[in-house]
Design brief:
The protein has 415 residues and is mainly beta. It has 2 domains: 283 residues, Methylamine Dehydrogenase, Chain H; 67 residues, no CATH class. It contains 6 helices and 29 strands. It has a 5-stranded mixed β-sheet with strand order 1-26-25-24-23, covered by helices on one side. Strands 2-29-28-27 form a 4-stranded antiparallel β-sheet, with no helix packed on it. The chain has a 4-stranded antiparallel β-sheet with strand order 3-4-5-6, with no helix packed on it. Helix 2 crosses helix 6 and helix 5 packs antiparallel against helix 6. The site of heme C has 18 residues, from helix 3 and helix 5.
């Protein structure tokens, strides 16, 4: 059994500015002298202090929770995306039906099926069955990087800051501004979820977590871990995982690491997660039934989940803190730098009261009067307590997004 190496090193949030998003100049010829022999993949250390008994561990509660409203932009797409690259010369999305440029509509650039896409230099790298190409905003040209990969077909790409992770049917490559690192032991990588320093790689039969260190990549197989999906985490949280929907955090604690239930927003115990994404600038995103939760070193940001698509097949973060969601023939982008709208009585809380509470609490119903803004402000803690406990409305059923909105209203001074 492989032991855990990553857990000994807390993953600091990567500070390489996501704004440039230039992974590396894919057109440049790679200096063969800069190629690392790929040692390190066998340098497996660690004490293996894994506690699969997460139920016995304390819940990881966020330091701070903020709610952010985002305005979604939607495009119609016939196929599920395999990747989206935001570049200074435009945004492209790869699908089985070809490469599309996202303008007002999704415009076809080229109809050949795309295997993977990532931002690189001032354009995008596009992997297809017939080779590796570079899109410069206008045309697709063969990429010189293909030569450095010894002709191995590219299966997965992930850009994070100035780093590009490249999974092939041969070795794993990690391209930094300084070198092209080659990891022969990590063959056949089909998917990469990555920040600049850490990644979760999907191989044919298992997932492995890796972290770039001074002596190469530290590697840890996730086969014996109590999660079935994982992405790099931030701060003391080394990995975020999901097991049957329960969100877990693999936390570095003195001398080892342990899995703990992860509170998502104000939900006290292990919020239900559907999907995970690595945030390329550090941290991770969890998709829940009605929220998108960003888990960063400083706390969590909750974004209400858009109404469409209901079923999400593609879930990916961009370097600017935004999110891409694909499914049911649409691709949705939620920008990362949108203004945070304050939660107000008139826009948020009064409509929620009318929909869920007023029938009993309007002064004529069976419950005590709880109708005016002043009454809600006075009783806000009791309201939150009852709603969180599933006691109000009788039978429960208030979603996380509404609970987050209530909490944000209280935190914002109840305007
Ligand atoms: C089907 C009727 C019904 C609905 C709907 C309902 N409540 Fe109630 N609620 C009651 C009744 C009856 C009581 C009094 C009995 C009790 O305290 O449990 C009550 C009590 C409360 C109390 C305690 C008030 C106090 O002064 O002790 C709070 C707070 C509360 N409800 C909040 C809510 C909120 C918030 C909603 C909407 C999300 C809601 N309720 C929806 C019936 C309802």
């Amino acid at each position: 059994m492989r032991t855990w190496a990553i857990g000994l090193l807390a993953l600091a949030a990567c500070d390489s500015g996501g704004e440039s998003a230039a992974a590396a100049d894919a057109r440049a010829t790679v200096d063969a002298g800069a190629v690392d022999g790929g040692r390190g993949a066998d340098a497996r250390v660690g004490d293996g202090a894994v506690s699969p008994d997460a139920a016995a561990s304390p819940v990881v509660v966020p330091a701070a929770v903020t709610l952010a409203e985002r305005t979604a932009t939607t495009w119609a797409l016939t196929d599920t995306p395999v990747g989206v690259a935001m570049t200074p010369v435009g945004t492209v999305v790869g699908t089985a039906g070809g490469l599309f440029r996202l303008a007002e509509d999704a415009e076809l650039v080229d109809g050949t099926a795309v295997v993977a896409v990532a931002a690189a230099a001032d354009g995008a790298l596009v992997a297809r069955a017939d080779g590796l190409f570079y899109w410069d905003g206008l045309t697709l040209v063969p990429s010189a990087l293909a030569d450095a990969l010894d002709g191995h077909p590219v299966r997965a790409l992930a850009a994070a800051g100035e780093v590009l992770w490249i999974g092939t049917d041969g070795p794993l490559y990690r391209l930094t501004p300084a070198a092209l690192e080659v990891y022969g032991d990590l063959a056949g990588v089909q998917a990469v979820a990555a920040s600049a320093e850490a990644a979760v790689l999907t191989q044919a039969t298992e997932q492995v977590a890796v972290r770039a260190g001074a002596s190469g990549l530290e590697v840890h197989g996730l086969g014996s871990e109590p999660v079935n999906a994982a992405a790099p985490g931030a701060g003391d949280v080394v990995l975020v995982g999901l097991e049957q929907g329960a969100a877990r955090a693999r936390v570095a604690v003195a001398g080892g690491a342990t899995w703990r239930p992860l509170a998502l927003g104000q939900t006290p115990v292990g919020g239900q997660g559907e999907a995970l994404a690595a945030d390329p600038s550090g941290g991770s995103w969890v998709l829940t039934t009605d929220l998108l939760v960003h888990i960063g070193a400083a706390g969590q940001t909750l974004v209400p989940r858009p109404e469409t698509p209901e079923t999400i097949d593609y879930f990916s973060a961009d370097a600017r803190g935004g999110l891409w969601l694909g499914g049911e023939g649409v691709l949705v982008h939620l920008p990362g730098d949108g203004p945070v709208r304050p939660v107000t009585w008139a826009d948020d809380i009064a409509p929620f009261r009318d929909a869920r509470c007023a029938i009993c609490h309007d002064g004529q119903g069976v419950g005590p009067a709880l109708q005016s803004q002043a009454e809600w402000a006075r009783d806000v803690d009791e309201i939150l307590r009852r709603v969180l406990a599933g006691q109000m409305p009788p039978g429960g059923g208030v979603g996380q997004a509404d609970i987050a909105r209530l909490q944000a209203w209280k935190d914002g001074g109840m305007p």
